[in-house]
Fold this sequence. Notes:
8 helices, eight-stranded mixed β-sheet, alpha/beta
Amino acid sequence: MPGPLDLPPISTGILTSVEQASVSYGVTRDQMTEAASRAAAALSRKLLDNRVAGASVVALAGNGVKGCVALHALRILHGFGSKCSAVLVGGEPDMRPETARAAAVCEALRLPLLQPRSPAVRTAVADAALVIDGLVGVGLDGAPREPLAGLIRLSNEVRADALSLECPSGLEPDTGEPLQPTLKARATLALGLPCAGLFASLAWQFTGEVWLCDIGYPPEALEEADLDPAGLFQTNEIVRLR
């Protein structure tokens, strides 16, 4: 049976169609987000060598779904005993509703929520045992602009141990072209399906290890996109691709 490495190149258009088909079968976006967040927290635990209690974890949270997943992963890691904080690139009016709700949960848990211009951001990112890159992923539209660009440059400058969600912020998801700037990650977690850009010739310099997690796409939704779901997550719900 085919496995994750046997998948054809998957464009952002295919990713969108599979998500929409999943919703049409009754799988909610909240359910997919929670599955992705739990996978991100599990991979974070692995990257921290299972020493999560007391570990400093910082999420760089954009306004979209990737930011939402990063914030919920932070909420889960907080439950594991990590010292968690986040840098929010926008306010509530700028965020997708689900991202604003995730930020509100973090606020209710009294997790520090920093603004990009805060003097505390540099120290938080530099001292973090793990940085979760939730800035921008498959929704990238041109080179990252401020304040995202500044946070990407900061992460690279301090050589943060970063886990990118979907794809490293700044990496063009279809072509794999690293736009300026692109975040350099220790590992990348693709959510549901890996975008084609993760396997481009220059991408490996930014992705680090590439992992894929199950977020609950029904086999029928994959089949509608001419993808063979058999064996995709046969061995585990989180699998390493590279």
